[in-house]
Amino acid sequence: MGVHRGSVRTVAHTERPGLRLLGLPHSGGRAENFAGWRAALPAAFPATAVELCAAQYPGHGDRLAEPPQEAVGAIAEEIVADLTRLPPADLLLFGHSFGSAVACEVARRCPGAGLDVVLLAVSGAWAPGDPARTPRDEHLLPDEELWKRLVALGGIDPDIASQTELRDLLLPAMRADIATHERYLACQDPVRLHCDVHVCIARGDPLVPLRAGRHWARLTTGNTSLDIGHGGHFHVFDDPAPLLENLARRIPVHTKRRRFGA
C-alpha cells in the first residue's frame, strides 16, 4: 500500500503537503487500517493539502517476519527517523489505543529532530502514569481467551476471527503490543510534552472510561481538549468523517493562518 518508507507508509499522497497526518495503529493494527480515512480528508481539510501516512510496526502487516519491538521508545525512534526523510510539513499525530503511547513518544522526540507537531490526538487510551488506571495483565491470558477478548472488542475482521491458523500467526504480535503498552502506562517516568493534545473517548468503550481523559492535561504545557463520542473501542474506524472534521478544528489558529496564507 502506497510508498514503502520503512515504518512510515503513505496512504494518501500529495505533492506539496501543508499538513501531514500520521496514524499510529492499535495493538496488532496495521498501516492499512487508516486506508478508510482517505475519502473523508478533502471535506475535513478543504483549505489545505493533507498527506495521510500511517505507521507499520515491526511484526505487523508486511513486516510480519520481523520480531515485534518491545519498547515504545524504540518504535518511536524508528518512526521519527523516517519522518525526517519526508518533505517538510506540519505534523498532526493520531494514535489509537496502543498507538497513543507510540504517538506520545513520537511527539516527545519530534522537536529534537526538527519536526513541528501542531497537534497530538490520542484516542481510546489512558494517559501514561494515570493513578486512576487499574493495571491489567491481559498479555498473560491463554491464547484462546486473549483472542476471544480481542475479537469481542471489534478490532478483528470476522472472517479472520474463526481461522485458527491466522490467529496463531497474528496473536504473538498482538500479545507483544499489549505487554509493551502495559509497561509503558505503568512507567513512573513522567511524559513531558509541549504540544497541544486532543483526547478522543467513546462512551461505549469497555477499556477506557470517560475519566481516563483527565490525566492527559498533566503531560503537556500546551492546550488540551476532550471529545466524547459514540461507539465502542474502534469507533475511529467506523465513521472517520466527524473525527477528521473535529481534528481540523483543533489545529491551533496561528498554524492555520500560516498554512492557509491568511
- Helix and strand run: EEEHEHEHEHHHEEHHH
CATH class wording: Alpha Beta
**Main sheet attributes: strand count, strand direction, barrel closure:** 8 strands, mixed
The pLDDT mean sits at: 89
Euclidean distance between termini CA atoms: 35 Å
Question: What's the CATH H-level homologous superfamily?
Answer: Alpha/Beta hydrolase fold, catalytic domain
The strand line-up of the biggest sheet is 1-2-4-3-5-6-7-8
Describe this structure in words.
The protein is of the alpha/beta class and 262 residues long. It has a single domain (4-260), classed as Rossmann fold. The protein contains 9 helices and 8 strands. The chain is globular, with a radius of gyration of 17 Å. The model is unreliable at 256-262 (pLDDT under 50).
